[in-house]
Design brief:
The chain has one domain. The chain is of the alpha/beta class. It is built from ten helices and eight strands.
Length: 277
């Protein structure tokens, strides 16, 4: 979208319109003014091949963050805020979840959770809880992994009781070995069914752990069929983010081209794959 400021503005304007407000209880339709700026997941009737719904998602453009993050002339403080900005994302609403009869459970897997209300890139677990609740989705179970040691008070003091009752917090590193006790895909298989609505975030800041998890998902259609929405900060070479910390714990041969391919494949498998911050 370089050189297409109107298209970028249309995308961000629609993302803003789709955010919940006190009066807005359902998401707006992606009318013609925005369709050219968005990507979509198509929900089809398996029997008739009839289109049941078009569910919008942010396009794969730039280096997969807020499209203005690369505008370094904005100043360091503004750039830092844009790095952490999540307002370009288009999460699901309850109306986007199939089946629509409310029979499915909602599960959140936060890999690299930090603490409930804070982390190096901003809060993640509380962000997901709050954002999805505002869109009509209440997580029935939350599974969080964090490698950095914390004592129990640090972990649970900021967690609301209503969330703590549904939360399993593993203060151990994620293990990407297939079948390992703390490979989150093993836990996901044990607790989720294809009818459940499953959101996964991967942001461990260790590419040697993250990349195998992504490849395991790509290689296993049954596993991918359990994941509805994925948020992944894919660390790659030759991106401006190397100036802002990606050089630490990033051991990879992947480039932005590989990121486009990865997110494209995940979306083709039916996962609403978002690039995380």
């Amino acid at each position: 979208m370089e050189g297409q400021p109107d298209t970028i503005r249309a995308w961000l304007d629609y993302a803003k319109l789709r955010r919940p407000t006190r009066t807005q209880k359902t998401p707006p339709s992606p009318l013609a003014d925005w369709k050219h700026a968005l990507s979509f997941h198509v929900v089809l009737d398996a029997c008739t091949n009839h289109t049941l719904a078009l569910i919008p998602i942010e396009p794969l453009v730039g280096f997969l963050r807020n499209p203005y993050t690369h505008c370094f002339q904005a100043g360091r403080n503004a750039h830092w805020a844009l790095q952490r900005d999540k307002n370009y994302l288009i999460p699901s609403w309850r109306q986007d979840v199939w089946p629509r009869d409310g029979s499915a459970s909602a599960l959140l897997f936060d890999l690299g959770a930090s603490l409930y209300n804070k982390g190096p890139g901003g809060a993640s677990t509380s962000w997901f809880v709050d954002e999805y609740r505002a869109r009509g989705i209440r997580f029935d179970r939350i599974f969080a992994w964090e490698a950095k040691p914390h004592d129990d008070t640090e972990i649970f003091a900021p967690v609301p009781n209503s969330v703590a009752d549904r939360m399993s917090y593993y203060n151990v590193p994620v293990d990407s070995r297939v079948g390992a006790k703390h490979n989150p895909w093993r836990t996901l298989r044990a607790v989720a069914t294809p009818r459940d609505f499953v959101v996964v975030k991967i942001d461990i800041d260790n590419s040697t752990v993250e990349e195998p998890l992504a490849q395991q998902l790509l290689a296993d259609a049954a596993l991918a069929g359990l994941v509805d929405e994925l948020y992944f900060e894919h660390h790659v070479l030759h991106t401006p983010m190397w100036r802002y910390g990606w050089s630490v714990n990033t051991v990879t041969t992947h480039t932005l081209v590989d990121s486009y391919a990865l997110f494209g494949q995940l979306r083709e498998m039916g996962i609403r794959a978002h690039s995380w911050v």
